[in-house]
């Protein structure tokens, strides 16, 4: 575990997480700390429990045992919404946006949660400046500046992926969980996406699930390997790449 | 002018037109018809906030409608309250009961929510008709429900009562317009489209559902109380499943999830009822057929149909395919 | 005591006849058929009519389900375009079905109560263990058990049943195997409707045959289906017996509170069962 300069504790960490679905153990006593400002990649074969772990971290799944902490504070009992209000954001592996809203409305919605404690019900949403500015800025950032007025459901897969990330980013979260952000992104679109992700990963605490090894090696400061629900190894990308056990279990010896 | 400002201007204009109608026309059946339409419209506008906007299927809204009617009637008839405070109490009762129903909406959705709200409303129906019959008059209901007395106006004049309804309807429609466009309204629509993501983004999905149920219950109770005043009668059928079904049909007919859809739907429904019942005793069956036809061919209702026509018109005019992305 | 038990069991079997149809339709098509009670009502009226024309109760018992099966086919035909859409519309369509069916019954038979008397062979009572037990109720129990057994056999032991079960969990795959899923769906709906009508025909000698009869029994029916598990025939039997007993004993000892208790139990069950098990968003690969 990386020693951390944070007196309160790392922005996100989990301890002894176990999740069982009936007779099947999805996660077995997984403990990980995610240091501030660093990007940790979670890799491992399909079914290793990576998304389950992300669900536990984001509040979507209650663990059977173990704790999740944000800046030292025990958030295990909190659901996804309270954790989001504490500064945690997450993108989904299968695109999960608001298809009937326009791209702009999607982003403005996410911005609203960031701008208001209680949602006002007596004025046109368009009348509030700050959510609008945040949404417009994010539109630029994700490269969809011209598509703001289009219904999100009509966009291409790659464009929807951008919205997916934009939704998570617009609140300027301290901790960002990205579940296969490049899934389904065509090879032509990968480069701009990588740039976007690179910018994101530099300045906040990120947990990243990805199968694209180039992305992982390029973006991650640390890599944690999950196999069969257990933490197999963790270390720098170079260390992991060289680890014989990891290669046998996942990377393959050709790497 | 922003979109909302334009809507509000149109609503005010409409309200003014209704007022003129109310004070100018003397044909009793027409005044009665218009009153009925406005009352049901208030009910449907509130219902659509839950059903069309937030995507929660409630089969129990009759409970709020009926409770509003009974509270209004009991307070004014038995306790001698003036109309306004009784009306306020009726609104609170409706909102409170609806908030209770809303708590069930947190735990379930789809058919389960529909069944639960139906069962809850049936419970209310039994309470009203049987268990509390000493208070409510049981199956006989309560007669002689009074209308307001204020400003020296004779509310028993149909035109005056209609004018009163027109004002309340305008307020209700304007409130709904504002709510739908507000940040809170955006959250409700988000819940309808993707509840999991809304939750993940940090929105209080549970609280929002309860809140929208409460608002919807307020509208329903208002409608119930006003109905009691119109017919000077309240009865247990006002809490029955047919009422819940009717408001649902009206909303679908007009176009759920739109501001004017519920209003149009009420108008269409009442017109259909008037026309068909003059013609046959079995107009309810005809309504059933119309309803089935709408679910099959025009699921977005009359508003949806008009939108399609408008788009087709525009396409024909321009001579090339229209792009997507029309704001509803 | 014994007579109360027999009453309970006969009510249970009646509920089961209805619930089995509903649960089949849900299991196969993912539709809660709101019009199920109306189909039951049509079955009851139809059987009255057949008895009025021919005097034969047995003919009624055979004809009513057949007639209503046809109605079921018609309904399923209307439902077909809605499978791809939001489930709400299926609910709404079946709700519209109630209106049409009730009005149709009113059109044909008017507003009066009808009553059907059981055939002389089944009328009267038998003395068992010192209690007078209505013979007809014993018949209802026997019929219900026979239908349960037949359904069970069909679903678990025949090829048709196997295909039904397969299509239930993965319609697309079944279609790839060359089986006409749409025909299966029509068959299931027709069968479900026929069961409802059989329930109506069987109920006719026991309960007043009137327009509202569908609604009063449908709530109990929903309860059986939900407690028993949507799509689960065995569960439906168990839940029906439970409910039948509660109704019979309740009627005997605390008749004033039965309706309230019924709705209350339904609400409780809907609240306590984990939503995941009964979510309509079950895998519907069609």
Would you mind describing this structure in some detail?
The complex is a heterotrimer of chains A (255), B (328) and C (286). Chain A is an alpha/beta fold and 255 residues long. Chain A is built from nine helices and ten strands. Chain B is mostly helical and 328 residues long. Chain B is globular and about 60 Å long. Chain C contains twelve helices and two strands, in the order ααααββαααααααα. In chain C, strands 1-2 form a two-stranded antiparallel sheet. In chain C, α1 packs across α9 and α5 (135-157) crosses α6 (159-169). Chain C starts with a helix and ends in an 8-residue tail after the last helix. Chains in contact: A-B, B-C. Chain B binds chain C through residues 57, 104, 107-112, 114-116, 118-120, 122-123, 126-127, 130-131, 241, 245, 248-249, 252, 282, 284-289, 291-292, 295-296, 299, and chain C through 32, 78, 81-82, 85, 87-89, 91-93, 95-100, 102-104, 106-107, 215, 219, 222, 226, 259-260, 263-264, 266-267, 270-271, 275, 278-281.
Assign a percent range to the helix content of chain C: over 70%
Main β sheet profile of chain C: 2 strands, antiparallel
Helix and strand composition category of chain C? mainly alpha
Order of SSEs of chain A, N→C? EEEHEEHEHHHEHEHEEHH
Q: What topology emerges from the helices and strands here?
A:
The complex is a heterotrimer of chains A (255), B (328) and C (286).
Chain A: E1 12-21, E2 24-34, E3 39-43, H1 50-58, E4 65-70, E5 73-74, H2 80-85, E6 88-91, H3 103-115, H4 129-141, H5 157-169, E7 175-179, H6 190-203, E8 205-209, H7 213-219, E9 222-227, E10 230-235, H8 237-242, H9 244-251
Parallel strand pairs in A: 3-8, 3-9, 6-7, 7-8
Antiparallel strand pairs in A: 1-2, 1-4, 4-5, 9-10
Chain B: H1 3-24, H2 28-53, H3 62-77, H4 83-107, H5 110-131, H6 133-136, E1 142-143, H7 158-181, H8 183-193, H9 195-200, H10 205-231, E2 233-234, H11 241-254, H12 261-279, H13 283-297, H14 301-318
Chain C: H1 2-29, H2 36-54, H3 57-79, H4 87-109, E1 125-128, E2 131-134, H5 135-157, H6 159-169, H7 171-176, H8 181-203, H9 213-228, H10 233-253, H11 258-272, H12 275-278
Antiparallel strand pairs in C: 1-2
Helix pairs in contact in C: 1-5, 1-8, 1-9, 1-10, 2-3, 2-4, 2-8, 2-9, 3-8, 5-6, 9-10, 9-11
